[in-house]
Amino acid sequence: MNALRIGSVLLAAALLAGCEIVPRGDARIGWFPGKLSGDIALDSSSGGLNLDLVRTDVNDDLGLSRSGAATMGADLDTELGRVSVSYLRYSDHATGSLTRAFGDIPPGTNVETTIDIDNLKAFWTFDLIAGDTFRVSPGVGADLFWFDATVRSITALSAYENLEVDVPMPMLFLESEIDL
To answer: How would DSSP label each residue in the chain?
Structure first.
């Protein structure tokens, strides 16, 4: 998987960048209890639709209802700052019935939906203010999203839509921590 390869490269670069002194590092694996919700719209191949009028509810129309996503991450404190990498994976496979057109799939069509969302976040921060019980750390990073969804009819009508979107987002960070 591309996201895991990229994460491995970023983690290796982080380790090499701060190889002088590594006072602290940690890794985590967890579960994010969120749920995918909202609307999505896709114009037909002929174009010209008002997308506000053809919004498709991802839960009611596409049937997506899985809650939660696996997460993992690692932090490494070095002499050059703190490097953090995290990864989230959300997948769902469901069936639903369209109340509005979705791309070239007409309303009323029973559909099968498969969705995969990957998010890789990597950032570097440095301690601007560091005390015994608190710290404030600005930094920079990148958030990478990979979105892949397929919606296909499960009726006699043979129609499907496939969406693949990759979104890199540069970010500025301000991280703080308090020990209680």
So the answer is: -HHHHHHHHHHHHHHHHT-S---EEEEEEEEEEEE--SEE----TT----GGGG-EETTTTT----EEEEEEEEEEEETTEEEEEEEEEEEEEEEEE-SS-BTTBPTT-EEEEEEEEEEEEEEEE--SEE-SSEEEEEEEEEEEEEEEEEEEE-SSS--EEEEEEEEEEEEEEEEEEE--
